[in-house]
Design a protein that fits this description.
The structure holds two protein chains of two kinds. By secondary structure, chain A is mostly helical. Chain A contains 15 helices and two strands. In chain A, a hairpin with a 7-residue loop joins strand 1 and strand 2. The chains are: A mainly alpha, B alpha/beta.
Chain lengths: 332, 429
């Protein structure tokens, strides 16, 4: 931007060229340009709307509409069959102060988020560093390591996980070779959540690929300089790799954290949709689903959804605010 | 890549519009399109149901029946979602709880006007008809006749030297038999699956104590001590080895017979409704299964028949559907027509609610069919009243409380108090 344009912006006026551009766009969209409108402009606006309409209709009907509706339902007693009855904030009051299962679900979910996300990111970084080496056929290795991520969120993999960790599953068969009679990992409240955390960690492919892209952006010269200064492998990782990778870590952390708060499928499949045993895998979204679709308390479920939005928003905001203390950008 | 022409876009749009308009096209052709949603207990039941519906459509080319069948757990959620979205199926499967809930909500059509013509229910199991009646109005036509039972493995009983004769017995005798079977059948094998999470045997347990789970006027029919004793009974069985440990039992999905320990050859008995029997026998190839009554009382107390016969699967019609007469005719065809009912029931594992159809299946069916019919006949001789509908989510509540006791998080008395508190809240809502 030139100095003149900059001055114009600061004075609160759009630069002439930009103003023409915005004015033209507004004119095309809302037809508020001064003067008479050429017939071709009206036609082209109509065509624009026509092409925009599939997305616009989808957004209004399938996204914005349900969001607004769920906000309203969260303030009602709504059982799916009768008309919603407005009850103010009583759903929110009940879930925050009167529902012990809600607190259980929140506790399970927070435990899952705070264990699965750091473990997954650590594992993903380790794998990315292994895949960053110049080896013959490295592309094949990368594809193989990414495969679990492609499969990981599916019901089929959760079913497979169930088979592996069941009482008569593969894990216990292997343990039996060593004379150990293992527990039923998925149906014992002491271990059930751990198996779901392990399933999440196994889905490391996506963050690993992003880490790999970040590792490739770090200039080789920095390692050479560190090596000349006497830095060993650990020092190079701690002083060069990790600081320069922090923007990528931030991105992965936020994305994985949001995903972990919304986790549903593994718990639903592994616990047969119950959140058991003894509510040990009762994820927030599973409890929400149960309240809405099994107990027909759609108003209460909507309130739960909005509290989850608040929790995820707060966690994301805290992550971004604290990032100024630990994220290092190259130009800083 | 070539550009998409305007003509191509128009053709695509027209195609999409046509597919959306298919129901209207069917109407224009004079075809009635009827959505029939429901739950089935086995592949056999699905096949026979589809065969009978196809036979009906062959006889009535003007009708298209779209069958939307799934298992019970998925069906409940799907039905609720579709109904609330104004997209309820025209006709759908009901059990006693669905019939109660959906009739009170005004979703189901009253069917009393169709009795006795064209639907004569005189020879139906009257417990089933009664269970499908709410406030004096019939709301569903019963498809089958089922009753509570213990599904037992012959090999396990033989090894333990126990013979059963379908006579009444006590809950204490059941506990002893379970422990004996565990001892006789070796490690990692248990006499009886933990049924503390199952409200059907729980209902019989309460009846044995002179109570019920719920009363006909939608009240709790038992005390805190009654339910505490129920949880304690299973806790004692776990500790004596008659039942599997909590973590083994927690791997069983109550609506999936393939996960039952009896099906897997890891337990000798499980409490179930008779409509699961045929599917379980199909899974168990190395032993005959047989049906045995659950206990009817306690040591030193009176013995009174507590079992009931009712329909596990009835068909209800949506009040807003414009095809009521046609749907009643479809039900009549599958339940009473000689050809339709033969296709519907032979090999399905379902025992028809109509005695005439039941005798047909008994004469031409398999040994498994005959075992179920014989058991249902025993119950029918002196049957108790069908259970009253409970509250939404009751099964889940009972499972959670039983698991909490099993894993040592709650004492039986506390689990009972919590169950009652949650049930009372739901009764009020």
């Amino acid at each position: 931007m030139s100095v003149a344009q900059d001055a114009g912006t600061k004075a609160g006026r759009a630069p002439p060229r930009a103003r023409r551009g915005i004015g033209a766009a507004l004119s095309a969209l809302f037809g508020r340009a001064g003067g008479a409108e050429a017939p071709t402009a009206g036609r082209s606006r109509l065509v624009g709307y026509l092409f925009l309409s599939p997305w616009l209709v989808g957004f209004v009907c399938l996204t914005a509409g349900p969001i607004v509706a769920s906000m309203y339902f969260s303030l009602t007693d709504f059982n799916l069959f009768s008309k919603p009855v407005f009850v103010g904030f009583s759903n929110y009051h009940r879930l925050l102060f009167e529902d012990p299962r809600y607190r259980t679900a929140l506790g399970v979910t927070l435990t899952y988020v705070f264990t699965s996300v750091p473990l997954k990111l650590t594992f993903a970084l380790l794998v990315a560093m292994l895949l960053n080496r110049a080896l013959a056929g490295i592309g094949v290795y990368r594809a193989i390591y990414y495969l679990p991520s492609l499969l990981g969120g599916s019901v089929a993999v959760a079913v497979m996980w169930r088979k592996i960790f069941a009482y008569d599953g593969v894990v216990n068969d292997v343990l039996l070779w060593f004379g150990v009679d293992g527990p039923s990992w998925i149906s014992n409240p002491d271990y059930a959540l751990s198996t779901i955390v392990m399933l999440a960690v196994w889905q490391f492919g996506s963050p690993a690929m992003i880490f790999l892209a970040g590792l490739k952006q770090i200039p080789r010269e920095l390692y050479d300089a560190a090596s000349i200064d006497g830095a060993g492998a650990w020092q190079q990782f701690w002083r060069v790799t990790l600081p320069l990778l922090t923007p990528i870590i931030l991105f992965n952390l936020v994305m994985q954290m949001i995903g972990a708060f919304q986790a549903f499928t593994p718990s639903f499949v592994i616990s047969n949709g119950t959140g058991g045993p003894d509510d040990s895998t009762l994820f927030y979204t599973l409890y929400l689903y149960e309240e809405g679709f099994s107990h027909f308390r759609m108003g209460y479920a909507s309130a739960m959804a909005w509290v989850l939005v608040g929790i995820i928003g707060t966690a994301t905001a805290v992550t971004f605010i604290t990032s100024r203390y630990w994220v290092h950008y190259g130009d800083q | 890549m070539g550009m998409i022409s305007r003509r191509g876009v128009l053709a695509g749009g027209l195609g999409g519009a046509l597919s959306l308009a298919m129901p209207a096209v069917l109407r224009a052709q004079g075809k009635q399109r009827i959505r029939y949603a429901g739950f089935v207990q086995s592949d056999g039941e699905l096949k026979t149901l589809l065969a009978s519906l196809n036979a009906y459509m062959a006889k009535h080319p003007e009708v298209e029946i779209v069958a939307e069948m799934t298992n019970f757990g998925s069906f409940i959620d799907k039905l609720a979602t579709e109904t609330s979205g104004g997209n309820a199926p025209d006709m759908f499967s009901c059990n006693v709880d669905i019939t109660d809930e959906y009739s009170r909500r005004g979703v189901l059509r009253p069917l009393t006007a169709y009795v006795p013509q064209p639907m004569d229910l005189t020879d139906y199991a009257q417990g089933a008809v009664k269970a499908a009646t709410v406030n004096g109005q019939l709301f569903a036509f019963p498809n089958d006749a089922i009753g509570p039972a213990l599904v037992c493995r012959s090999d396990a009983f033989k090894k333990a030297g126990i013979t059963m004769s379908n006579q009444m017995w006590t809950w204490e005798q059941l506990a002893k038999a379970a422990t004996d079977i565990t001892k006789a059948n070796g490690p990692r094998y248990w006499g009886l699956e933990d049924s503390g999470s199952n409200y059907i045997p729980c209902e019989l347990f309460m009846r044995g104590r002179g109570k019920t789970l719920f009363t006909p006027d939608r009240q709790i029919g038992f005390t805190r001590d009654d339910m505490a004793e129920w949880f304690a009974y299973w806790d004692r069985l776990r500790k004596s080895g008659g039942c599997p440990p909590a973590d083994i039992q927690a791997s069983v999905n109550g609506s999936d017979i393939t996960t039952f320990l009896v099906s897997l050859g890891r337990a000798g008995m499980t409490a179930a409704l008779t409509d699961k029997f045929a599917g379980m026998q199909a899974l168990v190839s190395n032993s005959d299964l047989f049906l045995q009554m659950l206990p009817n009382g306690f040591d030193g107390g009176p013995m009174k028949q507590t079992h009931f016969v009712y329909a596990g699967n009835s068909t209800g019609l949506t009040a807003k559907s414009p095809h009521a007469d046609r749907m009643v005719d479809i039900v009549r065809f599958t339940q009473k027509d000689p050809e339709g009912s033969r296709l519907r029931y032979m090999g399905s594992g379902m025992i028809p609610c109509s005695r005439a159809t039941r005798e047909l299946v008994g004469a031409q069916g398999t040994d498994v069919d005959r075992k179920i019919i014989a058991y249902v006949e025993v119950l029918q001789k002196e049957q108790a009243a069908p259970r009253s509908p409970g509250v939404v989510g009751m099964s889940n509540m009972l499972r959670r409380m039983n698991e909490a006791v099993a894993f040592g998080r709650l004492k039986a008395q506390d689990a009972s108090a919590q169950f009652i508190e949650e049930a009372e809240k739901r009764l009020k809502s």
